[in-house]
Amino acid sequence: MLPHQLELLSPARDADIGIEAVNHGADAVYIGGPGFGARANAANPVSEIERLVRHAHRYHARVFVTLNTILRDDELEPARRLVHQLYDIGVDALIVQDMGLLELDLPPIQLHASTQCDIRTPEKARFLQDVGFSQIVLARELTLPQIAAVDAALGPRDAPGRAVLEFFIHGALCVAYSGQCYISHAHTGRSANRGDCSQACRLPYEVRDMQGRILAHDKHVLSMKDNNQSANLRALIDAGVRSFKIEGRYKDMGYVKNITAHYRRLLDAILEERPDLAPSSSGRCTYTFTPDPQQNFNRDFTDYFVNGRQIDIGAFDSPKNPGQPIGWVVRTAADHLELETNDPTIELANGDGLCYLDLQNNLVGLQTNRVERLGPGVDGGTRWRIHPKDPMGSFKDLRRGTTVNRNRSMAWVRLLERPSAERRIALWVQLRAEGDALRLTLTDADGHSGSATLPGPFEPARDPLANEATLREGLTRLGDTVFEAVSVDVALPAPWFVPASRVNALRREAVAALMAAREAARPRPVRASAVEPPVPYPDDVLTYLGNVYNHKARDFYARHGVRVIEAAYESHEALGDVSLMITKHCVRYSLSLCPKQAKGVTGVQGTIRAEPLVLIHGDERLTLRFDCKPCEMHVVGRIKRHVVRDTERAAREAPLRFYRTRPAPVR
């Protein structure tokens, strides 16, 4: 990727979704392989990834495969073999977390540093660039000045070996710094660093202070709103971001189509303003719909910390999709309700998802089974009768005047179930005579050309005008290709008649030659060279937060000057109370209990301190500790005994090899 190019990077749960991401404007797609990805339930066979690669490369779009879990020693060889398979099918890059992979005999495939690497500082980013990473996925928590500082630390953007900065611009937010959350493993044995997070952050908690006073009850205080950087793209470009990443390898086809198209339009508008910038792949998209991020599942939106700390980043009332307000309840009956929409253009349909807040501010979902239009409402909207799928008695606090939101529109779902985009590369068509033969030359928007010759001689046409129209139509019949003719230049010494079958054969041969030229010109990304001698890691001590789970990773860090290397949390050597999550989100700040908020407030300053708080969910208790200097929160707890026992039992049944700093327990 060149320093003046911008990349829209979309997720793919499977190859079909990845292909539609490309069709809707993605410059690159990331997808999970058959194993070792940070979304355990989004795996794909190599053959399916190859199908996606073939489609993406037609547009010079790239395909990245996630191999971003931490690996045991016994998993390194299978991972190495998988990397060779992925390289052989043309995958452009791997997204990785485990530094042990850099110690293996890998093909020269490009490496990208996953957000799981916890890249928050210029020093960490520079280190990763210097050890051979070509693209670096920054922590979601960074501000614009912090991103700019990382960009500056990497050196001139056009320098050889200079890494590309990648940043998440849309989708679900992990509340923890990526790679720094162990609650799931501590409580269930399911490791987030191994792609199996149980999402404890989306649970409701009671918040108490150290005197036992309840500060919040049944609130999802660790659940964030969804990321949306639509308004910040220009600022992110100026800060140095070149790859714009959409979260969502668990998301469905409609989400990927819609969100990809949304950001494609925004980036294309910026590219029109900025002739110094260019897309990193070919083709322009047209859509059968108007992209709208509100139509997909979301927990409301935030731009998180990009513009500094905000107080409204949390989805504390519910981790569900609140939808958009469409009207209010007019009356309820035994088997239905009636509502009036607040806009007469709103159309309801059978199967729509509606919701409302009960008196305790809990979100209650209501799926429509049948809807009936009743006519105009009294306030300018439309009145509807709704027959819910579930009994009316199950809907708590549903009464006249209740505001109703819609969080799923079946009309929208059906719209995106159909073909919804075309992506075409502009083509200039030129037909010339060479003696008594015809020479067809096709030149695409990237400057690649392909030609074919059709030998003559040809008879004169009986109807010259109709003949030329037919000839032009045959030359531009490109429907099954990636091209769209924008100019046709026919220059013949006489109106020759050429049978349609021969025109079609000539066109197909020229298109094949052009595609071959495009493929020959497509640069394959290569692995960047590491700086020699090995550069030192920014710290000389790595705690369990370094996620070192195999001996190759240990050797990597030792080779880069780290003196003390603790084992990963998953090795079960940190059995006492430790930080199970480190996060930039602060519960005290969100509850307006931060000492910095009280600074300068008469009568309040000095009375609020950053004392610990306690989170309670059922039998689970977690302590919140606050590190005010870096403005971070630590969620503290310890591993459950059954998790340790289960792992020891599994190790006895099937030997597992992983990095330890002390001998394995003998039972």
TrEMBL record:
Residues in Peptidase U32 collagenase domain copies: 404-518
PANTHER family according to UniProt: 23S RRNA 5-HYDROXYCYTIDINE C2501 SYNTHASE, PEPTIDASE U32 FAMILY
Pfam families, sorted: DUF3656, Peptidase_U32
Main EC class the enzyme belongs to: hydrolase
E.C. number: 3.4.-.-
Alphabetized UniProt keyword annotations: Hydrolase, Protease
Source superkingdom: Bacteria
Lineage of producing organism: Bacteria, Pseudomonadati, Pseudomonadota, Betaproteobacteria, Burkholderiales
A Gene Ontology molecular function term of the record: peptidase activity
GO process terms (BP): proteolysis
Protein name per Swiss-Prot or TrEMBL: Putative protease YdcP
